Amino acid sequence: MSRQASGQSDVPDRSDVSASPTQSRRHVAAAANGTGTDTRASKSPATRIRKKHSRTAARSAKPDTSVRAAAAALSAQTTASSLSEQIANSLEREISDRHLTAGTSLGTKTTLVTSFGVAPATINEALQILRQRGTVTLKPGPHGGVFVLEQSPLTRLANEIHRLRVENLIDTNDAAEVLDGLDLRCAHDAVRFRTDEDVAELTAIRAELVATWNTEEGTTCNWALHRRIADITPNRMLRSFYQNLVDYIISEDTGPALGIPGFDPGSDERLKIHLMLVDAIIDRNDEAIDSILAAHRGEAPIPTDQR
């Protein structure tokens, strides 16, 4: 499941480390416009969102600098299901990109309404989304407002993956590439820890794979095979990561292209590789796993069947 690197990087430019937060946000806003300076303030993404979704907002108000980068980077073309989710994702990106710590103020509801140029109800919906994700907390009173909430690393990971998917910054090819890195450990664990029950179920899946190969049912069976192999590992975190990635790939309309030259997911060679993998697990042939998975990734020829 290997793919070639795209040559693009999602890592934000942090070269201007001496700039103040306000200057950094202005730099990000300018970068979003594709210029060195913010020369398109009247046509910024936030302004386009405002025109499209809220004709009643005060368009002449100056955006609050605490969310200037988030407001400027927000695009009307993003694929979020609603404007409120777009705003929530934009604020979450602001927190992530600037590494804002717990307790950092994002402003008040009023300043957020002004910055994004939307109705208060839309901001309320966006904040509700962020509260459900455990990203922010709201504090009442004169010194209150919207503050970054402390998150556990696993919660932060889940939220980050969700945001990247919503913004189309990751796809099934990325998931398949991560699976490549997990396949080896899952397969070796399957060889070492498989039971007679595992063997019986893998044998049944093997037979079904042969009968349905190169059909829609065969694709489903193939992913069921990968899920079942991962089910054997005693490492619950590995199992969870692997199986959820498989479920994500299945849930998408298109499968991964994998970046393998001449890749044909329904070829006889691909079927042979999967059958050899099952056989190696059943036979406890741990030495064969590495070469089989190298062929599975398209990095080596299919090894000689040792059965």
Features:
307 residues, mainly alpha, Arc Repressor Mutant, subunit A, Four Helix Bundle (Hemerythrin (Met), subunit A), 3-stranded antiparallel beta sheet, disordered N terminus
Helix-strand blueprint:
Layout: H1 21-32, H2 45-53, H3 68-73, H4 83-97, E1 105-107, H5 109-116, H6 120-132, E2 136-139, E3 145-148, H7 153-166, H8 172-193, H9 196-212, H10 216-230, H11 236-251, H12 268-282, H13 289-296
Antiparallel strand pairs: 1-3, 2-3
Describe it.
The model is unreliable at 1-64 and 75-81 (pLDDT under 50). A hairpin with a 5-residue loop joins strand 2 (136-139) and strand 3 (145-148). The protein starts with 20 loop residues before the first helix and ends in an 11-residue tail after the last helix. Helix content is 55%, strand content 4%. It folds into two domains: 21-166, Arc Repressor Mutant, subunit A (Orthogonal Bundle); 172-296, Up-down Bundle (Four Helix Bundle (Hemerythrin (Met), subunit A)), CATH 1.20.120. The chain is mainly α.
